[in-house]
Amino acid sequence: MDDELKQLWNKDTSAENSVVDMSAMDSNKRSDLVYRIYKKLRFEHWFNIAFTIIFTAYLVYRENFITATIVMAIMLVIILYYHTLIKKVKNQTYTESVSDYVKDICGHLESFIKHYKILCYFLMPVSIYVGISLNNDLTISEILNSPKRIAIIISAIVFTIALVLFILRILYEKDVKKLREMIDELS
Amino acid sequence: MQIDPKFNQLIDENKLLIQKVCRVYSDNQDDFLDYYQEVCIQLWRSMQSFRGDSAQSTWVYRVAINTCIGQLRKVKRKIDTTPLEGKPLNIPGEADNPTKERLDLLYQSIRKLKETDRALILLYLEDKSYKEITDIMGITMSNVGVRINRIKAQLKGMING
Fold first, then answer.
1. Cys-Cys crosslink for A59: which of A64, A69, B72, B93, Cβ 3.0 to 4.6 Å?
2. What is the DSSP secondary structure assignment for residue A122, as one 8-state letter?
3. Does residue B26 contact residue B34 with C-beta atoms inside 8 Å?
4. Is the backbone of residue B39 left (phi > 0), alpha (psi -120 to 50) or beta?
5. Angle of helix B141-159 relative to helix B98-111, nearest 10 degrees?
6. SS3 call for A148
7. Are B116 and B92 in contact (CB under 8 A)?
8. How far lies B8's CA from each of A179, B4, B32, B54, in Å?
9. pTM (predicted TM-score)
10. Candidates B34, B50, B69; nearest CB to A102
11. Rounded CA gap, B144 and A109, in Å?
């Protein structure tokens, strides 16, 4: 049976004349998981930079210097985190063993999911608070003294976190599960 | 775009090898062309890092298998070189050739296996030594032996019904 299988396999000797699209060599048409993560991160990175500049300028224009400083400090940490993550994903090679490669891409995907969770748990409440306080020119004590406002903020935070976690589950849980299964098979 | 002649030579020398890897990971002709394209892109991008520490075929197998496994999800995107959509996977040869039918059955059976098992049986069928399979897959030699025997029994069951 073994020889029979190998004999049959070796009869597949004629290669198709598949033409490689050379324009895709510039990487704009790649579709593998690592590149999809890289593309999303890069887009978010530039969005974060643009958002930080515009929003800080707006806060300074409104003479809200304390909030501007807090926003700048938070966004700087996030931008540096993105920079590190992008560098790690960009340097991913395909020449290592299959086992190492699967571990690497699983690690990238888990970091990618983790960064959304960090944003979700940390940045969402901050941005909701900043949004509400800017719209109504309210101070922290004014917000904390209004049970209705607190209830609205908490509901918005819970809803946002639940939505983000649900989306992450739908989009990536299957891929992480599959990669973990592969790691188990290869260990 | 200017393509290095060394790259064209690399593809020419390893075309069949790349196509076999792509065939075991793709269900139809569209996916096959996508995978082939992706593998060529990754070989192109990885070419400069190849220092000859391992055999060229080991390197090509690693890039090809990693690229196919790394797709994870079917991505339906249009490639200029795709002649027809949704066409069944084409293995070159005469249409009514019984060998082609048996080859089709073998590929279909391999495609029913888990991703990592497909790579292992492909390397076994390509007559790679356990040492080479270990280098490509990054698993222990004893694990290779055990798993290949299990996959062979599984394939046998599938092919013989």
1. A64
2. I
3. yes
4. alpha
5. 130
6. helix
7. no
8. 33, 7, 20, 20
9. 0.79
10. B69
11. 27
The residues, any chain, with a CB within 8 Å of residue B73's CB and separated by 6 or more, are A33, A175
Convert the pLDDT of each residue in B33-74 to its tens digit: 888 988 998 898 888 877 777 788 899 999 999 999 988 755
> Which tens digits make up the pLDDT trace of A23-32?
656 555 667 7
Whether residues A23 and B33 touch (CB distance < 8 A) is answered with no
Distance CA A148, CA A109 (A): 39
Strand partners, B28: B88
CB atoms A185 and B75 under 8 Å? no
Cα–Cα distance between A15 and A8 in angstroms, integer? Answer: 16
Token pair in block for residue B25: 């990971």
> Which residue would you say has higher pLDDT here, B138 or B84?
B138
Taking Cα atoms as reference points, which of A43, A47, A67, A75 lies closest to residue A135? A67
Reading the block at residue B137, the tokens are 């897959």
The alpha carbon of residue A97 is apart from the nearest alpha carbon of chain B, in Å, by 5
Q: What is the pLDDT at residue B120?
A: 95
Yes or no: say if B49 and B92 are a contact pair by the CB < 8 Å rule: no
Pick the more confident residue, A160 or B135. Answer: B135
**Mean pLDDT across A46-63:** 92
